[in-house]
Every structure is written in C-alpha cells, then in structure tokens.
C-alpha cells in the first residue's frame, strides 16, 4: 500500500527518504517502528501527485483511524457490558419461568384438591341417597309381602261370612298398601357431573390441548362452488361468482360449506382457524351424514341435528345446533378461534387462544364419526398449524 502511494507521489521518495505529510501519516498508520519503515524506491518519470488527491488519501486514513478507534472502544467497552447484561437477563428469565410455573403448579394442586373433595362429597351424597332408597323400598317390599300373605290367609282360611266380618280390617290394610307408590327416577340418585366444573381447569385444559393441534386439511371434493381452496388446502376464500367444479355427491351445491378430509371417532382433537379477515363465517363439527345438496336446513350448518357450529355475522356471534341458536357476547372480535372436540367425553368447545377465553362449550353424546366443518361468506378463513 505504501509503494502504491509512492507511485502517485514521486516527491515522497527522495535520496533523503520520504518527506511529505501523507507519507508520514501512512507510515504512522501502518504501525511500523522507525527502524522498520522502508524507504520506497525512486520511480523516475512519474509526475508529482496532485495535492487534492493527497489530501483525499490523508482524509481517508483519518477516517479509517477513527473507525478503528470506534470499533476498538465497542469491543473493549460495549460488548463486555452486553455480555453481562445478557447473563443478568437470562438469569432473570429463568427465575421468572421457575417462579411462575411453581405458582401455577401450586394453584393447580390446590384446585385438584378442591375438585377431588367435591367429587368425594358428591359420591358420598349419591351413595347415601341410594342407601336411603334401598332401605325405603326394602321396607315397602316387606309391607307388601306381609299384606299379600295376610290376604292369602284370609281367602284360604275364612268362609264368606268370615270374610264379611273381616272386611273392615282388610280394607284398612289394603288402603295402607295403596299409599306405597311405584319407584320414580330421581336426580338425587345420579352423580352430578357439574360438581367438577372449574373455569380454571377448563381454560388450562383447552390451552394445553390447543398446544398440540391436529393436522387438518379441507376435502376439495366437498367445497361449495362459492368457495376457492388454496393449494395447501388450508384457506377457503368466498367467491361471489360460482365456480365450476367436477360433479361429486359429497360436494355442497348451495351453502358455502366444506368438510375436512378426515373424521374423528374417538379421542381429543383440536385445531385453529384464522378468522381475522372475515365478518361472516361458521366453524365447528358435523356428521358425515350431513346433507350436501339443496338450500334446505338439512344442508345448512347449525340448522339440523348433524352439525354444531360457532358463527359470526357482522358483529353478532352465535352457537347453533338443530336450529337452536345461542347468542355469544364478546367484547372484541377474535383473530383466531380454536375448536376442541372431546369425542369420548362428549364436548365441543370454542376457544380464543390469544385471550385464553372459552367462547362457548357444548355437551353432546356423539353417535357418529365427526368431521371438522367450515363455511365462509366474506373474504377468507384459514386453518392454522
């Protein structure tokens, strides 16, 4: 680099050695000791370099020196501080995670103890009711048996005149037996499942299940002509103009519905749907026997016994099943909705994963395999993995 500088400035290479200021600055920048500095050879025939160009080189050297000083200071002062800050922040983060999980664990253990005690209490109450009923009906059976034996003896051992004399006694005993009523079904004899209802447990359970969502894809053979399906089979977009699809008995031909490709017949399953772009949609589950053709309620989600859906129309939210509609009051419109199905436990639940709020929960005994179902009449909705 120094020789290159000399080639531009012959005055810097004289018999007495380099003399111009930029040469001195360059040597100083090189970090060489005076006894290590090399005398650049003369190169005859070269013109004196322009002073403006020399100044530019000097300015560049100064800039490089300042840049080097800045980097040196950054490495010596800033990075050690960042390293220490990182250690402190990581330690705080670890401690926060540990302390919060300890707190959550303690709360869960307390809730577990409370709910188990309620289960035990309800179990004891039910057993006591059963014992009471057993004692009552055992006594009733004994009274009826005694009365029957008495009546048989009367008929067997008395003649007509004796029966007439015993008429009053027979009437009184028979009247007492008529006061014994037949057994009736009573809720007191059933274990009350509501004793384990816990908003805390419900939310924690829903959040945990939604952490392990089920892979869901839309079955393209079922999508309505009013819908367009993305290549990854995750996004449904409403189309005001009907599209042309191959004829298929599984396809909805009127309502903008679509079913997932896979049905569930046991276990717990969950999936998320992004709904932030749409103001008109339905999502939930249905039986595979759901009607596909026509504009009647048999094919309309939420208007028959084969479908359970959470829906939005403008700013109104509703849960619908078998033409029974329950308004769901929400403060804000969810951006995502999680759908959770416990097939064996008989529950379908709709959940806002961003705010950890259960939007609606419905109990149902499913008698057929169920399919995730979606419908959209504004913009698009997407399955989220």
UniProtKB/TrEMBL annotation:
A biological process term (GO) from this entry: cellular response to leukemia inhibitory factor
Listed GO CC annotations: cytoplasm
Keyword Zinc: yes
Alphabetized UniProt keyword annotations: Metal-binding, Zinc, Zinc-finger
B30.2/SPRY domain residues: 196-385
Keyword Zinc (UniProt): yes
Pfam families: PRY (PF13765), SPRY (PF00622)
InterPro entries, alphabetized: B30.2/SPRY, B30.2/SPRY_sf, Butyrophylin_SPRY, ConA-like_dom_sf, E3_ubiq-ligase_TRIM/RNF, PRY, SPRY_dom
Gene Ontology MF: a single term: zinc ion binding
Protein name: B-box and SPRY domain containing
Species this chain originates from: Crocodylus porosus (Saltwater crocodile)
Record gene name: BSPRY
